[in-house]
Design a protein that fits this description.
Length: 256
């Protein structure tokens, strides 16, 4: 197994790409700390379902509530990894939100919320994970979920796309800062992946349009991204750091 004996954190692991990533990491042998937000915010069954899916593939797991926008959450996730599994080897910064909204009347609070969760959440959870990995002195792997939106715009995503470019840039910079510690830092850039984040936005017309633009002919599924995270987290990618992997079925390159 690619990740036998490894311990991983996945933020936003209750649904979508994060849940699929937690399951695939476990399928390849990792023990996983699953972070969820909704329970901290009033309750959700999604985290329990994700936990059950990880257990069903034979993985050890622990579910930890917390808002990644709070810098203390990263520290609590690391504490959980160490308390339950004794160490930390892999950090997946995945949690993110995209409440579609027009630019000209963007509420300040909404803008700040998206930046807090997507960019600050990635920054502070990555920092907490890196501190633990440096302390252990045996290297590690950090994978952030950026987006094709780091490279292209979205008229209803003016608050969101800069955070995804920021996450991409963060991985490049921490790859330099952490390389001497043997910690590899990369990002995946998913294209259009059907999850709760875009379920309402992906109207039949838009699905048709994407279907035509994507050379592989289909919208992505969370597991398409999750398998690439496993690759970047594993020894197979042992000489890969500061890189970004588009996981978009070819959508980005298909201009005409
Ligand atoms: N779907 C797509 O097409 C693409 C998605 N992405 C990125 O992938 C990542 C995952 O999105 P996706 O799976 O699609 O979306 P989902 O809406 O399905 O999942 C989002 C996850 O993030 C969690 N989350 C939201 N806010 C917070 C918070 N403040 N603190 C901790 N966790 C939080 C949610 O937890 P809870 O259930 O507890 O609310 C949930 O587990 C995001 O970063 C997104 O930007 C990138 C490119 C394309
Ligand atoms: C939420 C969007 O549908 C999705 O998020 C991204 O990052 C992609 O670029 C899509 O726009």
């Amino acid at each position: 197994m690619l990740l036998e004996g490894k311990v991983a954190i996945v933020t936003g692991a209750s649904r979508g790409i994060g849940r699929a990533t937690a399951v695939e990491l476990a399928r390849h042998g990792a023990s996983v700390v699953l972070n969820q937000f909704a329970a901290a915010d009033g309750g959700s069954a999604a985290g329990e379902e994700a936990y059950a899916e990880v257990r069903a593939v034979g993985g050890e797991a622990v579910l930890v509530d917390g808002d990644v926008a709070d810098p203390a959450t990263g520290e609590r996730l690391v504490e959980a990894a160490v308390a339950h599994f004794g160490r930390l080897d892999i950090h997946v910064s995945n949690a993110g939100i995209c409440p579609f909204h027009a630019f000209l009347d963007m509420p300040v609070d909404l803008f700040r919320k998206v930046v807090d969760v997507n960019l600050e959440g990635a920054y502070f959870t990555t920092q907490a994970a890196a501190r633990q990995m440096v302390k252990q002195g045996e290297g590690g792997a950090i994978v952030a979920v950026s987006s094709i939106s780091a490279l292209v715009g979205g008229g209803m995503q003016t608050h969101y796309t800069p955070t995804k470019a920021g996450v991409h840039s963060l991985m490049q910079s921490v790859a330099i800062a952490l390389g001497p510690h043997g910690i590899r830092c990369n990002s995946v850039m998913p294209g259009a992946i059907l999850t709760d984040i875009n379920r309402d936005d992906l109207t039949p017309d838009k699905l048709d349009h994407f279907g035509q633009r994507i050379p592989l002919g289909r919208i992505g599924e969370p597991v398409d991204v999750a398998r690439c995270v496993v690759f970047l987290a594993s020894g197979l990618a042992g000489y890969v750091t500061g890189a970004s992997l588009l996981v978009d079925g070819g959508m980005f390159v298909n201009l005409q």
